[in-house]
Design brief:
This protein has about 425 residues and is an alpha/beta fold. It has helices at about 10-25, 60-75, 95-110, 155-160, 175, 180-190, 205-215, 225-235, 265-275, 295-305, 320-330, 330-350, 360-370, 410-425; strands spanning about 5-10, 30, 45-50, 80-85, 115, 125, 130-135, 135, 170, 195-200, 220, 255-260, 280, 310-315, 355-360, 375-380, 390, 395-400.
């Protein structure tokens, strides 16, 4: 079967989500965490996701990663490339959405590409180039307080233009609504503009964009456009919701939660988890000079894991985030938290943990990288938000990973139940 789509995701949770959404369309879509693993995607795959931790990387590093990904996708025979980023366009003033697109455009010989971050299913829409979270402009939403990528500007044309020397235009809803010919005519009228933010107020706009760009060598977007491309090349209707929910193979062993996100949703999920299971909270400032921190936490975990799942978290409220950033800087605080949790993941693995629930996109990349996991089976998108995956092998590992702001209050309990169900099914 031809490899229709190669997806480069700028973090692991986003990569896992897009793989699961494509799987929900009935398309086999494994996920890899390094370019070398793309050489073995298997004949059944119509799409593959390469997830790299490049959202906050130096732009030159991100460009190099993009060029390497393009070469690997070409070698694997991918017909088109999709650059995947967060629906809320999470990035810094320097990138990396623009720099990655520049590098991929050059590698693919593309003349233009679109940027379609909208995710109407989760009420993230774009109108007149402005992104809305529900009824609220992004720059007026909780995203303005994001500790790593604060988003205070809602006009995505301005956001993207700040990251690139390439001219940025807008393909508006009213043009898309007039059909493919009208959209192509508008693009031709603005033929000197290579980058276009695309409006999407609903799923119909997403489908129109997929039809417009299906034969383009490079497309970029969030969580909705890639599955729409899959439906378009297959010319098939969307599968019934939940149709591809499936249990992955078991990963016998203990279970731990690692939380680095400071999003309100993760804080609520941890609070509910703590009502039934032990949680070890790490204060990045107060414990900064503790040379025995990792060892003492692992001693604690070894005792607690005999009785059931545990959680370890660097997550903090707004005051805690401010204190950590004052001590280590914005990027320094985030990097410190992820490094600590990555090291603890390796220690937990030595203690027999084989099922990891991880909250936070950057944290997930750090944890999975620390554990040396490289290629995953991915379950179709469902109530776990696309984060349920499995690495087979002599010592199998299962994960449920999530972006910090995602999931209901009982998310961790739903994830525990799914992993326990998989283990039980594997013993039958």
């Amino acid at each position: 079967m031809a490899l229709e789509l190669g997806v480069l995701a700028d973090d692991l949770t986003g990569g896992m989500m897009i793989a699961s959404l494509i799987e929900r369309e009935g398309v086999v879509c494994p996920l890899a965490t390094n370019a070398e693993a793309l050489a073995d995607v298997g004949p059944a795959a119509e799409a593959v996701v390469l997830a790299r931790k490049i959202r906050l990387a130096d732009p030159d590093v991100a460009r190099a990663e993009a060029r390497a990904a393009a070469a690997a996708f070409a070698k694997a025979g991918a017909r088109r490339i999709y650059s995947k980023y967060c629906a809320t366009f999470d990035s810094t003033e320097r990138g990396n959405i623009g720099p990655i697109a520049e590098a991929l455009m050059e590698a693919m010989g593309a003349q233009r590409t679109v940027f379609s971050p909208a995710f109407p299913q989760r009420r993230v829409t774009v109108f007149q180039g402005h992104v809305f979270l529900g009824p609220t402009l992004m720059g007026e939403s909780f995203k303005r307080f994001d500790p790593a990528t604060p988003m205070t500007e809602s006009n995505l044309v301005k956001v993207l233009q700040a990251q690139t020397q390439t001219r940025v235009g807008l393909l508006a809803h009213e043009t898309l609504a007039r059909g493919k010919a009208a959209a192509e005519a508008e693009l031709e009228r603005q033929s000197d503009i290579p980058f276009f933010i695309v409006d999407a107020v609903d799923e119909a706009d997403i489908e129109r964009t997929a039809e417009l760009t299906l034969d383009w060598p490079l497309i970029t977007g969030g969580d909705s456009l890639a599955p729409a491309l899959a439906r378009t090349w297959r010319s098939s209707a969307r599968p019934q919701e939940g149709a591809n929910r499936r249990l992955l193979p078991p990963a016998p062993g203990k279970t731990a939660v690692l939380a680095g996100s400071c999003a309100a949703a993760t804080l609520r999920q941890l609070a509910l988890f703590e009502e039934r299971h032990p949680v070890r909270r790490i204060d990045l400032v107060a414990e900064a000079d503790d040379q025995d921190l990792a060892a003492s936490i692992l001693d604690w975990a070894a005792e607690q894991l005999e009785h059931g799942p545990v959680a370890i978290a660097t997550s903090a409220d707004r005051d805690g985030v401010a204190a950590a950033q004052a001590r280590f800087g914005r990027q320094g605080a985030a990097a410190r938290a992820d490094t600590v949790l990555g090291a603890l993941a390796k220690g937990l693995h030595r203690l027999g943990v084989r099922k990891f629930l991880v909250a936070g996109g950057e944290t997930s990349g750090e944890v999975i990288g620390a554990l040396g996991a490289r290629r995953f089976e991915v379950s179709g998108f469902d109530d776990l938000g696309g984060g349920y995956c499995h690495q087979p092998g002599a010592t199998p590992l299962s994960f449920v990973i999530k972006a910090g702001g995602m999931g209901s209050e009982d998310f961790f309990f739903a994830a525990l139940a799914r992993l326990a169900e998989a283990d039980a099914a594997g013993k039958v």
